């Protein structure tokens, strides 16, 4: 199986590793050290060798930060990981705090005056450092860049080796645009900013721009490296030679020079006197320091690949449609298995996640999971980012709700879908809450909006049915999704937090409202949807964008209280189920996913409410 269900850390990590880090801090004259979750590439999901926060604290969540002082330490995360962080981190070694309130800056304001707090400039963006520096200075302390990183020195020979997965071409049949055209287009965007070149450090931008994919990051086909793109479309790409497949130089073409990562310092020095675009939110501070030292003029702007990457072209959208139908057939076979075999045998959460993975493998086209499957039974389903590992794994029981959130990586697209199902009979309370979440989901699926609308502005549309009932959920409503890239992709999102990026045609975003009753069960409904071009509205005056649904798999009708739905909402569910049957049914009728029993079950599951 691709997914591991073993604990990779334990709470003893703090007691074991903090003294080692503090000893190395003392050697460099430091009173403190910032330990972000992010690595040199600002990744959300990290290679094992870059899991610094996990090594020092034991916490393995995908969002967090730590601070180590001489006599105390703290680790921070958000509400998704509250239960996990208390289980993984020794509270005698670390204060365990919320990353928003009080947050890292507020905690840094309490450090003793005169302290010297170190940071690794490779691991922090300039934007992230701004607030941290302000807080440290408010305390009368100093923030100091350090190299080498004391934590890396403490980790020493026990640290895993850096990944060296092969980097391979990603054909234009999937990308819809050859790399030369992309380089010319982005080069022109760089010129339009008044710059001579752009320094690209985001692995997703390298993958998209050069039409390549790698395997350096778990669950995401990313190549780790950097690139300098010139305004004329020529480029220098810095990759570990051990990763370069034989066909890669020919694929990249004569206008792209491959270089060893050690050569980037000289390449940056050669930018002296030139104007260079760098993203202060995504690129590490070390690159800004190097460019300034070289005498380059810096234009601080969004990575010029970010928006073109997020706005999928027609080929990528069609690929995503194919991917979701294929993946939807696998998910439908799984849901049939849950309602037949699993309701009888009552497997545990690991066995449930493994079953879903087997159905995805049976497509014959799965390259990887898009993230580790969340399989939460009963109270574990009330933890939005629960991961079934070790002693936390529960067996399902009759009467509980099962929340399963998973996805796959395929050459033609990336999927992410959540379904909540009843194991046996659903209570009236469970049906009410599920239906309220369904109403919120439908509100986002059917919304129309004018050009210039942001996800922040739409977020309340989704939450309104739940707010009316005095309910809410403490996570975002939607995130961007890549095309055989990251399952979380910027710059757009749908959330309470302010985001100024308008939603544009071709952007793929999730729609995932939820409800979580601590200690009992959780509910989430998630599909992916793509922003459609603005179209006239009958009787209206302005064209409006909307969403096309990409994910197709039935909802558990045993959890739907039809009386709580409006006529329009009932019509939506019926139409969605009819389309699900039309798209998924043929794959279950014949081919590699043929499953007559699942087809018969789907036909019943997709009948009118």
Description:
The two termini are about 35 Å apart. The mean pLDDT is about 95. With about 600 residues, the chain is α+β, with helices and mostly antiparallel strands. The protein is built from 19 helices and 27 strands. It is globular, with a radius of gyration of 25 Å. Helix content is about 35%, strand content about 20%. A six-stranded mixed beta sheet has the order 4-3-2-1-5-6, sandwiched between helices. The protein has a six-stranded mixed beta sheet with strand order 12-11-10-8-13-14, sandwiched between helices.
Which band does the percent of strand residues land in? 15-25%
Largest sheet: 6 strands, mixed
Write down the overall geometry.
globular
Structural class: alpha+beta
Uncertain ranges: none
Tell me the distance between the termini.
37 Å
In helices, the fraction of residues equals 25-40%
Radius of gyration: 25 Å
- Spatial ordering of strands, largest sheet: 4-3-2-1-5-6
Contiguous helical run count:
19
The tally of strands reads 27
Mean pLDDT over all positions: 97
């Amino acid at each position: 199986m691709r997914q591991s269900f073993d604990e990779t850390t334990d709470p003893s990590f703090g007691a074991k590793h903090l003294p080692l880090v503090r000893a190395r801090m003392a050697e460099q004259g430091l009173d403190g050290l910032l330990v972000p979750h992010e690595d040199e590439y600002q990744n959300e999901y990290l290679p094992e060798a870059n899991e610094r926060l996990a090594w020092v604290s034991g916490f393995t969540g995908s969002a967090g930060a730590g601070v180590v002082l001489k006599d105390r330490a703290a680790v921070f995360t958000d509400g998704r990981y509250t239960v996990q962080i208390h289980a993984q981190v020794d509270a005698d070694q670390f204060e365990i705090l919320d990353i928003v309130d009080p947050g890292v800056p507020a905690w840094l304001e309490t450090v003793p005056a005169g302290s010297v707090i170190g940071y690794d400039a490779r691991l922090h963006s300039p934007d992230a450092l701004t607030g941290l520096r302000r807080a440290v200075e408010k305390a009368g302390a100093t923030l100091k860049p350090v190299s080498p990183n004391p934590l890396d020195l403490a980790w020493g020979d026990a640290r895993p080796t850096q990944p060296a997965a092969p980097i391979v071409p990603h054909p234009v049949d999937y990308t819809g645009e050859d790399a030369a055209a992309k380089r010319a287009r982005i080069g022109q965007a760089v010129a339009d900013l008044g710059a001579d070149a752009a320094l690209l450090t985001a692995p997703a931008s390298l993958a998209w721009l050069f039409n390549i994919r790698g395997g350096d990051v778990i669950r995401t086909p990313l190549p780790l490296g950097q690139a300098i793109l010139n305004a004329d479309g020529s480029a220098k790409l810095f990759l570990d030679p051990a990763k370069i497949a034989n066909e890669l130089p020919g694929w990249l073409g004569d206008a792209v020079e491959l270089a060893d990562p050690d050569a980037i310092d000289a390449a940056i020095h050669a930018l002296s006197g030139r104007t260079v675009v760098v993203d202060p939110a995504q690129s590490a501070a070390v690159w800004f320091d190097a460019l300034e030292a070289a005498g380059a003029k810096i234009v601080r702007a969004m990575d010029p690949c970010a928006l073109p990457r997020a706005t999928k072209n027609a080929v990528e959208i069609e690929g995503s449609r194919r991917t979701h139908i294929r993946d939807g057939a696998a998910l439908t076979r799984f849901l049939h298995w849950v309602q037949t075999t699993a309701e009888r045998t009552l497997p545990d959460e690991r066995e449930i996640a493994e079953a879903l993975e087997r159905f995805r493998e049976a497509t014959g086209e799965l390259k990887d999971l898009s993230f580790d499957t969340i399989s939460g039974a009963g109270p574990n389903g009330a933890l939005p980012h629960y991961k079934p590992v070790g002693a936390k794994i529960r067996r399902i029981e009759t009467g509980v709700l099962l929340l399963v959130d998973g996805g796959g990586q395929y050459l033609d697209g990336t999927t992410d879908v959540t379904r909540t199902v009843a194991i046996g009979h659903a209570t009236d309370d469970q049906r009410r809450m599920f239906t309220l979440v369904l109403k919120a989901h439908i509100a986002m699926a059917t919304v129309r909006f004018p050009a210039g609308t942001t996800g922040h502005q739409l977020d309340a549309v989704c939450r309104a049915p739940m707010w009316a009932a005095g309910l809410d959920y403490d996570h975002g409503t939607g995130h961007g999704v890549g095309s055989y890239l990251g399952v979380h992709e910027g710059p757009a999102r749908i959330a309470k937090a302010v985001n100024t990026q308008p939603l544009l045609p071709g952007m793929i975003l999730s729609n995932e409202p939820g409800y979580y009753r601590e200690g009992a069960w959780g509910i989430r409904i998630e599909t992916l949807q793509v922003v459609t071009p603005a179209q006239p509205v009958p009787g209206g005056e302005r064209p409006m964008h909307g969403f096309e649904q990409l994910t197709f798999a039935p909802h558990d009708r045993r959890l739907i209280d039809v009386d709580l739905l409006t006529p329009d909402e009932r019509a939506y569910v019926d139409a969605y189920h009819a389309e699900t049957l039309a798209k998924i049914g043929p794959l279950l009728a014949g081919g590699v996913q043929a499953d007559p029993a699942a087809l018969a079950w789907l036909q019943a599951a997709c009948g009118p409410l």
